[in-house]
Amino acid sequence: MREECRELVETLRLANSWQFAPGFVKAMLGAADIIEQLAEKCDQLEWERNAEPAAGWISVKDRMPTYEECGDFVLVVVNGKLGSNTYEDAICLCWLTEDGDEWTEYGTGNDLTGMVSHWVPLPDPPEQEPEWKQKMMQTFLGGR
Questions:
Q1: Which of 73, 97, 110, 121 is such that its CA lies 20 to 30 A from the CA of 1?
Q2: 48 pLDDT band (50/70/90 cuts)?
């Protein structure tokens, strides 16, 4: 739970020890319960939103990708027929539009809107040593 929420909940729960009317104390304790539940739900949603792609494919029925989390491209699972092409659980690379409501296959430009069932963000590229460092290591240390 976020620190601000935790402090507010603790303060509201102290109402039991204060000299207030019983109805007021009950209301403050109820408010503490609601804040606590909302904070836990926010934490859960934040965790789900930041889940690693390895957690699995995300159904388009659950939520659509955002440009902030995926960048320009997203991997998708496609099923359907488009012209002479038949997609059966095909994994395709798609452009991600900023409003996220269109699926354009990279390379072909095919509009796959309505055929995508799941998506997953691309993983980060592997970290590589800069070329200058590789050359320096080769030159001065013989590649060790």
A1: 121
A2: low
